[in-house]
Amino acid sequence: MKKATSGKMKKPLTQREELRGKVIDALAQTMDLYGVNYSFGQLYGIMFFEDKPMTLEEMQTHMNMSKSNMSYAVRSLIDSKMASKLKEKDERKDLYAAETDFFKAFQSFFATKLQREIDVMRGALDAVIPPLSETILELNTSEEERKLCLEDLHKLKHAVSYYEWLQQFVNDLQSGAYFDGRHDNR
Amino acid sequence: MKKATSGKMKKPLTQREELRGKVIDALAQTMDLYGVNYSFGQLYGIMFFEDKPMTLEEMQTHMNMSKSNMSYAVRSLIDSKMASKLKEKDERKDLYAAETDFFKAFQSFFATKLQREIDVMRGALDAVIPPLSETILELNTSEEERKLCLEDLHKLKHAVSYYEWLQQFVNDLQSGAYFDGRHDNR
DNA sequence: CCTATCGTTCAATAATTATTCAACGAAGTG
DNA sequence: CACTTCGTTGAATAATTATTGAACGATAGG
């Protein structure tokens, strides 16, 4: 038996736990805005404060959720580069750690997300621009249709230049170029 | 009657419509990654190509969805600053236009989202740091508890400096500082 | 004023996403 | 080579979110 008489009870939070809770909630809300589900954001918050490698089992007890969901959650955090799996193990259990440097965490997060965006959009643009150009060049395209295609093409070219810029932006973000006058990494 | 014999039929798409569709799909997927629902992202794509003020009714026919949903969708786009309501009206109908400059559109979008993030997090940090500091300063706080609080406080201070940096970043983003060597706004 | 139509709201329903549970293969242990 | 226990998977369920439809106040036109 672990701690007390039976199943579940309202644990009396310490003040510190309560304060942590507020920050974790804000963090989870925030990540919610970027397409990360609230619970998974909470998990990041917990790992952030815990600040030492955690096993799935520990996550389970902290979050009070099934192990399979924790497995899913931690994978999602890893996908966004907000956490990583360590090479060491505790007993037989895998260990995971959150990136606790907010600069690095959100740097990785946005770099990952934006890169995905760029890839998706570039894929579409690369697939669409050639046939559209082709149609414009065709001799038997009606004048009206050619005009419409030209308008679209112009918009897509503008998009291309945007995603070129965005790619550069992501590169700079990853290289740390935007983090110059800062980092009190004491 | 509008166009043909009855209700709904598979309209035979022109090549141009099909190509547009691919780009719209990519756009919608992309926005999906940032917490904007797919349909609403599609609507942005449609408005982007349409490139002239649209009424709710037109959106309805393009998207084949209820007017109430279109009302909701357009409001969501306006919240993210990706579209705006015009002062003029067509008949009695309100007119809306999408921001067609991708630079501006995504600039507004991220500025809005990041600002919300900053506000939420600053709110939590401002609420939590004072009482936490207080506890540390209290004479009757146990040594153990003081140590834990100090660790948390250190993390939160790091977070504060991150959000200060992020605020500056958003300001720069809004001021256009990052868009220097570009903008082929021909 | 009366009528028609706009855009919004609210409650109901449909669709999607999050979560659990049971089962399984892959190690580590003895 | 059996025995655990780990992490993942896939199907079932719960919870949330998207979408609709009906009702309403506002307002422009007659």
From TrEMBL, chains A, B:
- Show the InterPro entries listed in the entry: HTH-GbsR_regulator, MJ1563, WH-like_DNA-bd_sf, WH_DNA-bd_sf
Name this polypeptide is given: HTH-type transcriptional regulator
Q: Which domain of life is it from?
A: Bacteria
The Swiss-Prot or TrEMBL record annotates one GO molecular function as: DNA binding
User: TM segments?
Assistant: none
* Similarity annotation: Belongs to the GbsR family.
The UniProt keyword set, sorted, is: DNA-binding, Transcription, Transcription regulation
Gene3D superfamilies in the cross-refs: Winged helix-like DNA-binding domain superfamily/Winged helix DNA-binding domain (1.10.10.10)
